[in-house]
Write a structure and sequence with these properties.
mainly alpha, 491 residues
């Protein structure tokens, strides 16, 4: 169990450790606004597209084997990311990290399904696993802040190397070999259809938020995504041993759990990603101070994951999961009132609400999904839960990040007489505006920086309110899907 926690902790840290490095990356690599979004979500983007395929592969070639192969690849990709000489290189390295991460996450969860056949023990084990995942995601900014206080931005990736080396040694020694005894063949066509459908749909959302829904690329990508996923579902229904048994979605508890995880991470993904920029570039915190400021979320996520099984037994999984979504919606709604001088106590309360909701919803949804699947298909089923998480992260950054960028670009006002090149740099991103302000005379630079900060805060507020609305809709839908369907059935 400790080895599995080590694996999931590192992958989760890598999803968020970069957020405090964004200002440093902006200064050194000078990415465009679009490249900045891709640096943030290329990891989750690729991870989401491959999780179902890798989950099914783990059932076929062995969960331990795929976990160790993925750990090796993760270490190699971390080296490429740490020494990236350009924004494009960093985006590519992050995508490779996503490929490797896709082999690790479903392998850990499916091994738990094998190690703990007893439902009560499994719920506790998944609570620990969920605590590691949410703690890693929440603790990533703190770890990143500690490293950035003393080293360059690439150091956040070098952290992976000693941990992966330890995982390889202990994993081969302690983890049991496990696979589906009758796995069938790994259907390459299904892999290509699922990847194409998921990635095209996320791209359509990203372009729609950035350029408007009428843009031809949005419609083209959306059509490719829908056709790809439709083809994937039809093919799974025909195959004797499908890559993913889509009939699992006929179980409303399975579908409700997946929806809950997707909505929760979608709602918080993009907004929380940009809070690190708010803390550093608007509030003036150092990377370490910004990481410490987000620590309440880290603690709340761990605590909620650990008590999730007990809470579900007391009030029912339905009430606990939907209650977590309600708390998340309220916390995100509070960010809609954000100003440049909002009290830190308010921010800490928001971080606690977001962290507790993420830990609770993520852990409960993983348990519900895994419990609904046969043991032999645990890798593919756990991949569905992980896909919802990573797809939600990628969609959240794509959607709310694009909304924030559009609002910011429209709202920021350049001082009269400002050089057109500096004005364009300021409109591209908050980091660009702060960098441009440093090269200007005192009064002009201060005016530009203040206008950029005000525009950024306005964009964060609108994106947060949109996220809160989506979470509220998702909570209602999850409540309906998770309602009891027969006498004696747990809610």
């Amino acid at each position: 169990m400790a080895v599995l926690v080590l694996a999931v902790l590192l992958v989760a840290i890598d999803a968020t450790v970069l957020v405090l490095a964004i200002p440093s990356i902006t200064e050194v690599l000078d990415p465009s606004a679009t490249q900045l979004l891709w640096i943030g979500d290329s990891y989750s983007f690729v991870l989401a597209g491959l999780l179902v395929s890798m989950g099914a592969l783990s059932d076929r070639i062995g969960r331990r084997r795929l976990l160790l192969l993925g750990a090796t690849a993760f270490g190699a990709a971390s080296l490429l990311a740490a020494y990236a000489p350009s924004a494009g290189w960093l985006i590519a390295a992050r995508a490779l990290l996503g490929v490797a991460g896709a082999t690790i996450m479903p392998s850990t969860l499916s091994l738990i399904r094998v190690l703990f056949p007893d439902a009560r023990q499994r719920a506790t084990a998944i609570g620990i696993w969920g605590a590691a995942a949410t703690a890693g995601a929440a603790g990533g900014p703190l770890i990143g802040g500690l490293l950035l206080e003393h080293f360059w931005w690439g150091s956040v990736f070098l952290l992976n190397l000693p941990v992966m080396a330890l995982l390889l040694v202990l994993g081969r020694w302690l983890l049991p070999a496990s696979r589906d005894p009758k796995p069938g063949r790994w259907d390459v066509v299904s892999v290509l259809l699922s990847m194409t459908g998921l990635i095209a749909l996320v791209y359509a959302v990203k372009e729609g938020a950035a350029n408007g829904p009428a843009h031809w690329q949005v419609w083209a990508a959306g059509a490719v995504g829908v056709l790809g996923l439709r083809g994937f579902v039809r093919r799974q229904l025909r195959l004797a041993t499908p890559l993913l048994d889509v009939r699992l979605f006929a179980d409303r508890r399975f579908s409700g759990a997946v929806l809950g995880a997707l909505v929760a991470i979608l709602g918080m993904g993009g907004v929380v990603f940009f809070m690190s920029q708010y803390l550093q570039l608007v509030r003036g915190y150092s990377p370490l101070t910004a990481g410490l400021a987000e620590t309440p979320g880290f603690v709340a996520a761990m605590g909620a994951s650990l008590v999730s099984a007990r809470l579900a037994r007391r009030i029912g999984a339905r009430g606990a999961l939907v209650g977590g979504l309600a708390v998340l919606g309220l916390a995100l709604g509070a960010l809609g009132l954000l100003t440049e001088s909002t009290s830190y106590l308010v921010l800490a309360a928001v971080f606690v609400g977001v962290g507790a909701a993420e830990g609770l919803v993520y852990t409960l949804s993983s348990d519900l999904v895994l419990s609904a699947a046969p043991v032999g298909k645990s890798g593919a089923a756990s991949a569905v839960s992980e896909t919802a998480y990573e797809l939600g992260t990628a969609l959240g950054i794509a959607l709310f990040g694009s909304v924030l960028t559009a609002v910011y670009s429209a709202a920021v006002t350049a001082p009269a007489g400002l050089d057109p090149a500096a004005a364009a740099q300021a409109r591209a991103s908050l980091g660009g505006a702060v960098a441009a302000a440093r090269s200007l005379p005192g009064g002009t630079g201060d005016a530009l920086a203040q206008a950029a900060r005000a525009a950024f805060v306005h964009g964060v507020g609108l994106a947060s309110l949109l996220a809160a609305g989506l979470v509220a809709v998702g909570a209602v839908a999850a409540w309906r899907l998770l309602r009891p369907t027969g006498a004696g059935r747990s809610s």
